[in-house]
Write a structure and sequence with these properties.
With 352 residues, the chain is of the alpha+beta class. It is built from 10 helices and 15 strands. The protein is globular, with a radius of gyration of 21 Å. The termini are far apart.
Amino acid sequence: MAATATATSEKKSFEAEVGRLLHLMVHSVYTEKNIFLRELISNASDACDKLRYEAISNAGLLPDGDRLVITLRPEVDTGTLIIADNGIGMDRDELISNLGTIARSGTRAFLERLGEKSEGTALIGQFGVGFYSAFMVADEIEVISRKAGAGVANVWASNGADGFTVRASTSEEAASVTRGTEIRLKLKPDCLSFLEGATLERIVKTYSDHILFPVELAQTDLTPRQINAASALWQRSKSEITAQQYTEAYQSLAGAYDDPRLTIHYRAEGRLSYAVMLYVPGERPFDLYDPGRKGRVKLYVRRVFITEDADLMPTYLRFMRGVVDSEDLPLNISREMLQSSPTVMQMRKALT
């Protein structure tokens, strides 16, 4: 990787495969650009989770009462969307390693599929490239990060074409990130809708409503407010959940107004780990005998919504509603992979 150092910043070239990946993302046609927000929020959630884990052995990293949170801050005047977290953060070497290279096997196959097919957004994240999906909506990306317990913050910046730079933060930038990571997306002219509060809230509720940490929307001159539930009922013990909470979850997941006739809630652990919360509706669906009717059990991966078209239940149980949340599947498993995934096949067998 070529590098040119200056007194204030260091210019680096992307790894060859990263450059090709970014070119395909920017110049291909995608039907779901909003997938970038799911990816960045998921990364932020992982960073918060890592800090919580590290703090078990080093309590000084996470002082008592310090709240882990993910913040979305749209700056309409500058056309910039900011996604920030106060998680583990990255030092300079980690910024270069994590954002400048792809060090996972299978990347070449991923690039070939991405170049040949128009299912790009279904593949993003499958090989650990979720961060790069932000270039679908941004002309420029700036990442300010301070590792937990470190005294300095660093800045990674790129336009997706000419490599990237890494430099020490200014005093103003350092003050804005006391711990964790702040991603600043300079949005493309046709992507400014991602600065609208209603749009951001809709995307978060669709994909990230049940991640472990609160996601707050901080709009100009308004008090930041939480826009996700930050609670996955199916991950809790049955002894902690009331009948009313089960009913409310059913009505929310199914978009229903009746009470469930039967609730099935358990957690499978072993070679496969997944949580199950399924409901038999209290009222017969109007299209119960429609042969074209599809099942609507939602598939989540580590609390992140993936699809309700995974066909997890057999045809004769397509009236059931609920959630299956896997700990083993890749976050962005494609529809094509769902059909052939050994993990999905084993879950289908167990659910019947």
